[in-house]
Amino acid sequence: MNSEQLSGRREFLTTSAKVVAACTLLGSVSAGAAAQSAPKSGVSRITDKHYYLDDALLETGFNFRDSTVIGTQTELKTIEINDGKIVAVLPNKQHPNAVLNTYSAQGKLMLPAFRDMHIHLDKTFYGGPWQAPQSREGKTIMDMITLEQKMLPELQPFTQERAHALIDLIQSHGSTIARSHCNIEPVSGLKNLEALQTVLDKRQQDLTCEIVAFPQHGLLLSKSVPLMREAMQAGAHYVGGLDPTNVDGAMEKSLDAMFQIALDYNKGVDIHLHETSPAGLAAINYMIKTVDENRSLRGKVTISHAFALAILNPEDADAMAKRLAEQQITIASTVPIGTLHMPLKTLNKNGVFVMTGTDSVIDHWSPFGLGDMLEKANLYAQLYTRPDELALSRSLAIATGNVLPLDEKGQQVWPAKGDDASFVLVDASCSAEAVARISPRQAAFHKGYLASGTVEKSLG
């Protein structure tokens, strides 16, 4: 059997299974009646403000054996969407307002929208010809900064075109919410910011994206403080920073400058902290102290990467997690593979908000980013949890901003009336399967707008 035949057979089996499941759940609907339902037509654009989405597979609870979760219950439902919000979750194919257009999710699993919370939309090879990064053997961060200073002017003519392509990529994988770091330094000035803002202005309907003004060449080293202040005035949402000891050579002075900009403009902070030496821990401790002394920063500070946490022993990691949680400091981890084992479970257990992102997607830093948050959830599950139904379902949280269909006890908490109609349709039977198998995505919706993929429209 060739791959085309195998793919067709899998699709047939999947579809058949879901028809049977739907008939079982609805009881009164026979297989014959299902076969005689209204014809449908595939659409990739929905212009309706108010409509129904039938055949959405929702998680409704867990199956237990004694106290152990052994499976996930699901049911086909109709979602009523109006003005970007979910206004009702109805029995499948129940349409109180017969005038509204109706679409079908075709039995695909409905999951909360994915969130790519650490990406660089402004400098990528993606969308252009293949280009592997230059060898980094023997190179320091300073060497990479020198390389980037040369490359940035060559990339800038393509910034908008490639940012659009990269957005299309992450949306095809289900992400319609993002946070992008954007270079702010003397080589780029505000050019990258202006280009990215132009792109995001055109994508308002299908993407919500925050911008971090990122001094990639060192906040102090490249004398970028005035430019960072201009970026805040121009509309950037977060003040960025980079390795205050290894790059700027003055940890306290660098962090003080970063936080002062944030305080002056009432912005958040999102710093790249790669340092794994004691200097990295010193920087984290200093940031905790700064937030404690400036309570307006609570809930507004993110430490990206935070690799220094990987060198802590379990007791120290637990203590650090409690202090981070108290100051409501978020960790943005790209779920590294290799020798760095981050205490992500310890952070979660202590109430630290942990999110993830793509980081680099085919650029001069790395060629491996796929732009897929479900892949990140899969990595998290493999590295940090057990391969059982409950643990796999919980692992989805790192890709969705902690929004999950079911709580720990199996009570349905999403979707609910009033939620944004931002979700992804996945070819899977439940969250656990989606995470374990990195299941295919069919469509992504952003506040009721079909951002990527297709659904079917009922024709009558």
Automatic annotation (TrEMBL):
Q: Which InterPro entries match?
A: Amidohydro_3, Metal-dep_hydrolase_composite, Metal_Hydrolase, Metallo-hydrolase_Enzymes, TAT_signal
Q: Which Pfam families match?
A: Amidohydro_3
Is the keyword Ribonucleoprotein assigned to this protein? no
Q: Report if keyword Signal is assigned.
A: yes
Question: What PROSITE patterns does UniProt report for this protein, alphabetically?
Answer: TAT (PS51318)
Keywords from the named record:
Signal
Q: Which residues form the signal peptide?
A: 1-33
Domain (Amidohydrolase) ranges:
165-432
Q: Where are the transmembrane segments?
A: none
> Which NCBIfam families does the record cross-reference, listed alphabetically?
PRK06846.1
Which protein are we looking at? Amidohydrolase family protein
Source species of the chain: Providencia zhijiangensis
